[in-house]
Design goal:
- Its EC number is 3.2.1.40.
- The chain is of the alpha+beta class.
- The chain folds into five domains: 136 residues, Immunoglobulin-like (Sandwich); 199 residues, Jelly Rolls (Sandwich); 114 residues, Galactose-binding domain-like (Jelly Rolls, Sandwich); 344 residues, Glycosyltransferase; 101 residues, Maltose phosphorylase, domain 3, CATH 2.60.420.10.
- The protein is built from 14 helices and 50 strands.
- Strand 28 and strand 29 form a beta hairpin.
């Protein structure tokens, strides 16, 4: 048999991921470059590769079974022709006996700013060895502050077009002409455009990124983008053009400086490094030789309120050589924002998907309602033809009133309106640049003709990350919830995770992502985004250890609680669990330790209880939807039980992670504290009748999931949880954000997966199905989002997903990491009445994992794929291991499988990589 090994080369920094595929065999070599990482500013990147074999198919491409890497060798060189064992001038790792294929730390010569590096890998396995893969590459960014040769430019003042009272500025335009004096070998642009930018060279926009760069607290750190512009430059005259929008720099609301953080007027730092074929270099940098104006077509822009664009004011050829710029102003030197300059290693925001409107309905007054059929975040691109000066506006909303008009009360004071003024020169096409909206419906007014559906395109805008998971089952409602979740999660990725995309908030609340980030990771490769966000949280931490509820801290909310700031450690835990990257824990351990000490010092009372909480079980459902009609959900019910239970869980995590991160001296202290907290918690909150606290579902779920319940009381508490759901709630949940985080997994762990399934498939209030029955195409903020007061009833949130998606994958599909990064996998799909099949896939850092099972009253069939260089422990429902066959033969006799034992009515096997097909009698 020919050995084929498919190698995925990844440059995985602390917060980046870029991939190159190479198909390798002993007889041929082929490589397809998918993405070339630009502007890395870490001195020791981590390298990873993915092994697989065979031509394969949709189920995972793992035809060869039980492939295990035994050794590897990495070469890094400064040029492709040096990438051999005898010439590699940057790093030759030598042949190292190791099964490690992810997060291999670079240990070569010091990497230099602006240089490009090439690398390749050879692996040895128990099935044979590969040839060297085709080279991949990465480029270094600017490693030092002094590598930036330009100066910040801008205009630190208001202009006539600015809507100062509205918090909307006109866009700032800057330009610079230059000459490339010799043939160009390479050209790279490094740019920080605050708050958002678009870069043009010779009239053409550079890159597909939008809403760039990723938002940060600009006084702490600023993300720069690195763009390869080699193909745009040749010997001769050229021009650079940059448009600056507000973004989060000039805050959308300025009226509450004690609450809202703003950073000033838009500004720019950029340099273009040109390397000529003769080896010389020229740097074009921002200085006062640039020209600028605020009197352009983007007359106002603001994330909440939209964009006003007057096409009559366009400057034809403004970013091309030879433009008449005499009326433009000399660019002014301005103060730098103050934050550290960092390469943006998380994915750029892009237009990822387009959506056609389903209908256009004419309304009174010459207006039209466009229905895109899906709640999403982005904008509308449209074509229009009409007289010069015609004003066309689009107002956005998530839903309609009974009258058919837009329902916009839940937007609060966000205007959510884009306006375009025609120049009257034939067909005109426009979309905004520096805003986005959350909507399903758009109201069109001022259109000069009869609009057609083909003239309008909805643009879904979010971080350009890979969709890593799929899920389909025999239950249509579960499938629809999954689709709604995908749209909701995607809509709320904007260089940071935000709570909602439509109203005057859109903030990166920590509490919304405590557990949902974990579930999201099965659908999207959100690793880079969440590593970046952990950095935002660390930057927001105060010197005394306090962590805010929102990070970056665009809102100054430091309320001191456990469940919101604890997200720092929960997300770090998720990233380590899902990707195996120990550096995540090492990076965040000090901040977590400092914050936990802060909370203990300030808020742990003599009884060992954390006395301070802010939100309680946020947004728990009213008893009935009718009972919550018109009621404002913005109600806080602090809970010492929640605060203390969370604190205990975080201390347990630190007990483990202190050892993993080289902080062994802390392990005993944390372990002892956990023992004390457990005793104190039970003394304070346990009731001898078999429940905790106020006997709410959440009060009982947390002690069970966190392991706080004494062994002798476990049965009683589990019974009480089931009683609340079955008798008190009639098969429904009654949890808010906190309880829903642990609901489905806790029920499954106590042997009541049937109750979890019953909750997941409810269509009556409160449930995910109730949302869908009432028109939801994403996930609501509130269980009674159709009846609550409009101040808080976003129809596109993620926080109420809780652990549902985790349950989909780990319990329904049976895809769960038994070791960090899925090096070891445990597969144990739950069987329950009413669910006849599940088909799910998840691309882990080692490769694709798939699980597709179906059952009848008498048989169970299961097809699985396990990535190379991993192992799995699988649990098959059956009467006896003797009844299990794999690909038509006895599983117990198959040499690739190792039978372990019977566990109740399940046969447990261990196996290596490959595609497997199991059948058994039930």
């Amino acid at each position: 048999m020919k050995l084929k090994i498919n190698i995925l080369l990844l440059v995985l920094l602390m917060i980046s991921c870029t991939a190159v595929f190479a198909q390798v065999s002993l007889h041929n070599l082929r490589c397809e470059l998918l993405q070339n990482p630009q502007g890395i500013d870490m001195p020791n990147p981590a390298l990873s590769w993915e092994l697989s074999s065979g031509a394969g198919g949709a189920r995972g491409d793992y035809r060869e079974r039980n492939i295990q890497q035994t050794a590897y060798q990495v070469l890094v060189a400064s040029a492709p022709d040096l990438l051999t064992e005898g010439k590699a001038d940057v790093w030759n790792s030598g042949k190292l006996s190791s099964s490690a294929s992810i997060h291999i730390i670079y240990k070569g010569s010091a990497l230099k700013s602006k240089n490009k590096y090439y690398w390749t890998v050879k692996v040895w396995t128990n099935k044979g060895d590969s040839v060297w893969s085709k080279p991949a590459s990465w480029s270094m960014g600017l490693l030092h502050y002094k590598d930036w040769e330009g100066r910040w430019i801008g205009f630190d003042r208001f202009f006539a077009n600015d809507k100062e009272s509205e918090g909307r500025l006109s866009a700032r335009y800057f330009r610079k002409e230059f000459t490339a004096t010799r043939p160009v070998a390479s050209a790279t642009a490094y740019i920080m455009g605050m708050g958002l930018y678009e870069l043009y060279i010779d009239g053409k926009k550079i890159g597909e990124q939008v809403l760039a760069p990723a938002p940060t607290d600009y006084t702490k750190n600023i993300k720069y983008n690195t763009l390869d512009v080699t193909t745009q430059l040749k010997q001769g005259k050229h021009a650079i053009g940059v448009i600056l929008g507000n973004g989060r720099f000039f805050a959308m609301r300025q009226a509450k400086p004690y609450k809202v953080k703003t950073f000033g007027f838009p500004k720019l730092l950029m340099q273009l490094v040109i390397r000529y074929t003769d080896g010389s270099t020229t740097v074009i940098k921002t200085d006062d030789s640039w020209k600028g104006t605020a009197d352009g077509p983007i007359m106002a822009n603001n994330e909440y309120d939209g964009e006003l664009y007057d096409a009559r004011k366009e400057f034809k050829g403004w970013s091309e050589p030879g433009y008449e710029e005499s009326k433009w102003l000399k660019a002014a030197y301005v103060q730098e924002p103050g934050g550290t300059y960092e390469a943006q290693l998380n994915e750029p925001v892009k237009v990822v998907k387009t959506i056609a409107p389903l209908t256009i309905v004419k309304r009174p007054g010459g207006k039209y309602i466009l229905d895109f059929g899906q709640n999403f975040a982005g904008w509308v691109r449209f074509n229009v033809k009409g007289p010069r000066g015609t004003v066309v506006s689009l107002r956005f909303a998530e839903s309609l009133q009974a009258s058919g008009e837009l329902f916009r009360t839940n937007l609060r004071d966000a205007r959510a309106t884009d306006t375009y003024i025609l120049k009257g020169e034939g067909m005109e096409t426009w979309a905004p640049r520096f805003t986005y909206q959350g909507f399903r419906y758009a109201e069109l007014s001022g259109h000069p003709g009869t609009p057609k559906k083909s003239d309008f395109t909805g643009c879904l805008v979010f971080d350009d990350m890979q969709t890593t998971g799929s899920f389909e089952s025999s239950n249509a409602l579960l499938n629809q919830i999954f689709k709604n979740a995908w749209w909701g999660i995607a809509s709320n990725y904007k260089g940071m995770p935000v709570d909602c995309p439509q109203r005057n908030e859109r903030q990166p609340w920590l509490g919304d992502r405590t557990i949902s980030a974990y579930g999201e990771s099965f659908l999207f490769d959100n690793t880079a985004l969440y590593k970046k966000w952990l950095g935002d949280i660390r930057y927001a931490q105060k010197e005394d250890g306090a962590i805010p509820d929102v990070a970056p801290a665009f809102w100054r909310y430091y309320s001191d609680n456990v469940s919101w700031p604890g997200t720092l450690l929960f997300v770090a835990d998720m990233l380590y669990r899902q990707t195996g990257d120990l550096a995540v824990l090492q990076k965040n351990y000090p901040a977590a330790k400092k914050w936990l000490s802060y909370m203990q010092t300030r808020y742990m009372n003599e009884e060992g209880i954390i006395s301070k909480d802010s939100y309680g079980d946020w947004c728990a459902p009213p008893l009935t939807a009718e009972a919550g009609k018109g009621v404002n959900a913005d109600q806080k019910h602090p809970s010492a039980l929640i605060a203390t239970a969370y604190y205990y869980q975080l201390i347990k995590m630190m007990t483990t992670y202190s050892g993993l991160t080289g902080n062994e001296q802390d392990s005993t202290l944390y372990a002892d504290l956990a023992i004390k907290l457990r005793k104190d918690f039970n003394r304070k909150f346990y009731n001898d009748q078999g429940y905790y606290g106020g006997n709410t579902l959440t009060d009982n779920l947390l002690p069970v999931y966190f392991g706080l319940v004494e062994e002798v009381n476990k049965t009683k508490v589990a019974r009480e949880i089931a009683r609340i759901i079955e008798e008190k709630n009639n098969g429904h949940l009654s949890t808010g954000v906190i309880g829903t985080n642990f609901l489905m997994r806790t029920l499954t762990s106590i042997g009541r997966a049937d109750l979890a399934y019953r909750i997941a498939t409810q269509k009556t209030y409160p449930s995910w199905g109730y949302m869908i029955e009432n028109g939801a195409t994403a996930i609501w903020e509130l269980w009674n989002g159709d009846t609550a007061a409009p101040k808080m009833n976003s129809q596109n949130h993620v926080m109420m997903l809780g652990d549902l998606l985790i349950w989909y994958y780990e319990n329904l599909a049976g895809i769960k990491a038994a070791a960090p990064g899925f090096k070891e996998i445990v597969m144990r799909p739950e069987m329950m009445k009413g669910l006849d099949s599940v088909n799910a896939t998840y691309r882990s850092v080692y490769g694709m994992i798939s699980s597709s099972w179906s059952r009848s009253s008498t048989s169970f069939k299961w097809e699985i794929s396990i990535p190379a260089n991993t192992t799995a422990r699988i649990s098959i429902p059956t009467k006896s291991a003797e009844h299990v066959t794999e690909s038509g033969r006895s599983a117990r006799k198959a040499k690739e499988l190792k039978f372990i034992q019977m566990e109740g009515n399940r046969a447990v096997f261990e196996l290596g990589s490959g595609d497997y097909s199991f059948t058994t009698e039930l």
